[in-house]
Automatic annotation (TrEMBL):
Keywords, alphabetical: Cell membrane, Membrane, Transmembrane, Transmembrane helix, Transport
PANTHER family: INNER MEMBRANE TRANSPORT PERMEASE YADH (PTHR43332:SF2), INNER MEMBRANE TRANSPORT PERMEASE YADH-RELATED (PTHR43332)
Name of the protein in its database record: Transport permease protein
Keyword check for Transport: yes
Length: 261
C-alpha cells in the first residue's frame, strides 16, 4: 500500500498506544499526580490563605494559587509521559517497534507529544474538578482561549523536552536528574506560589527569564483575569521555544541519535 504524504493510520495507532500505556495505570499517572497537587493546595491555603490575604490588587491568595498548581501538574506530567515512554522503550528494547514501521520522524514526534499533551490535560482537568468543590477556592473560567493556549503550549514544551530527555538518557537516573534539577526547580520558582512584583530587581529579571513563568502567568490569567507579566511577549516566547525544541527533537529522531545502533 502506498502511503501518501502523512501516514494517518500509523500516527493514530502510535498515539493510541501512548494514551493506553499511561491510561492502564491511571491511578499512578493521572490520579496520584492530581492528589499530590491538591496537597500543595491544602498546605498553602492553610499556611498562607487564611485571614483574607490578597495579592495583585485584591485577588484572594487561594484563587491566585489554584490555577498555577493546575498547570504545574499538567506540565510536569507531560514531561514524565514522553521521557518515560522513550526511555523505557530503549531500556526494554521495544523502541524498535516504533522506529521500524513506516512512520516519518515528524509523525513519531507528533504521536509522542500528543500523548504527553493528552496526559497533561487529563491531570489538569482532574485537579480542576477537585478544586471546584474546594472550600474558599474559586476556579471559574474567564478567558478559555488563554487557558487553552498557555496550557497546551506548556504541555507541548515539556512534552518536547521529555522527548529530548528520553532520547539522551541511558538510564532512569539521567531522566530523574533532568526532573530534579531542571523541571521541578523551574516549576517551583516560576511564580506559582508568589507574585513576581514582590521580588527585588535582579530576582524579577531572573523570573522573567524563566519560560515556566509565562506558562503559569498566562494560564492563571485565564481564571483570574489579571496577569503578573506581559501576556503577548510571553505567548510569542513560548511559541519560539516550542519551534526550537521541535527542530531539535525532529533532528535527533531523523538521525537516530542514541536510538539506532
Amino acid at each position: 500500500m502506498v502511503i501518501p504524504f502523512v501516514n494517518w493510520r500509523g500516527l493514530a495507532t502510535l498515539y493510541l498506544k501512548e494514551v493506553r500505556r499511561f491510561f492502564k495505570v491511571q491511578l499512578q499517572t493521572v490520579w496520584a499526580p492530581a492528589i499530590t497537587t491538591l496537597l500543595f493546595l491544602a498546605i498553602f491555603t492553610v499556611a498562607l490563605g487564611r485571614g483574607g490575604r490578597t495579592v495583585m490588587g485584591g485577588i484572594p491568595f487561594n484563587d491566585f494559587l489554584a490555577p498555577g498548581l493546575i498547570v504545574m501538574g499538567m506540565i510536569q506530567n507531560a514531561f514524565a509521559n514522553s521521557s518515560s515512554s522513550i526511555l523505557i522503550g530503549k531500556i526494554q528494547g521495544t523502541i524498535i517497534d516504533s522506529l521500524m514501521p513506516p512512520l516519518s520522524s515528524g509523525e513519531l514526534l507528533i504521536s509522542y507529544v500528543a500523548g504527553a499533551l493528552t496526559r497533561g490535560w487529563l491531570v489538569g482537568i482532574a485537579v480542576w474538578m477537585f478544586m471546584l468543590a474546594w472550600p474558599d477556592v474559586h476556579v471559574a473560567i474567564r478567558h478559555p482561549l488563554a487557558i487553552l493556549y498557555y496550557g497546551s503550549m506548556g504541555a507541548i514544551m515539556l512534552g518536547l523536552l521529555g522527548v529530548l530527555t528520553g532520547i539522551w538518557a541511558e538510564k532512569f537516573d539521567h531522566a530523574a536528574a533532568v526532573t530534579n534539577f531542571v523541571v521541578q526547580p523551574l516549576s517551583l520558582l516560576s511564580g506559582t506560589f508568589y507574585t513576581v512584583d514582590r521580588l527585588s530587581g535582579p530576582w524579577q529579571a531572573i523570573s522573567h527569564a524563566n519560560p515556566f513563568f509565562y506558562i503559569i502567568d498566562g494560564f492563571r490569567y485565564g481564571f483570574i483575569g489579571v496577569s503578573d507579566g506581559p501576556l503577548l511577549p510571553g505567548a510569542l516566547l513560548l511559541l519560539a521555544i516550542n519551534i526550537l525544541l521541535w527542530a531539535l527533537c525532529y533532528t535527533a529522531l531523523r538521525k537516530g541519535w542514541k536510538l539506532k545502533a
